[in-house]
Write a structure and sequence with these properties.
heterodimer; A: mainly beta; 7-stranded mixed beta sheet; 4-stranded antiparallel beta sheet; globular; B: mainly beta; 6-stranded mixed beta sheet
Amino acid sequence: DVKVTQSSRYLVKRTGEKVFLECVQDMDHENMFWYRQDPGLGLRLIYFSYDVKMKEKGDIPEGYSVSREKKERFSLILESASTNQTSMYLCASSLEEGWVTGELFFGEGSRLTVL
Amino acid sequence: AQKVTQAQTEISVVEKEDVTLDCVYETRDTTYYLFWYKQPPSGELVFLIRRNSFDEQNEISGRYSWNFQKSTSSFNFTITASQVVDSAVYFCALSEPSIQGAQKLVFGQGTRLTINP
């Protein structure tokens, strides 16, 4: 059974803390994504990676960074968490199919609360 | 830039009613893909359908059907004879090529569908 696993379902952090959200996929997918989900705003892309050590900014990268040292793992980093980063974070992966847009497989999400 | 609009924030119907979820998109690309995802209360988004811009045939899968109309830039989703298990948030999404050529998705705001017994 194909799977995208996010390390934590729920996290509570303090303002200013450094936060790591980890995501692992077992499908050998080239592409990995981090989205943020907020009520009324849908899913917004933070960063994505199309290959190991390669990344590209999404629509809302400010305050975030990412790391992809291995093909199966994609980490989202909040260098100094702020209350406006309280949200649901969704990791996804997809197979690289050239000009065809591959289906995204999602993890269960990580709900982050910053106090 | 691509844009997806799901104007219906919330819909509530009684079980066995038919319900249509609207999706309108904007793109300048001639080749693109449209998707629908379901997010049940458990939280994990589940893929429902992918459609490419060259195929305007309507699709039916059991109680689910999709109507793709390029002339109105719409990709609407209909559930026939709705059931309580259909209660979820539904997202429409549109493909967008990145600078490097990788394909990513732009999502709509989502429609929360509640099916009442």
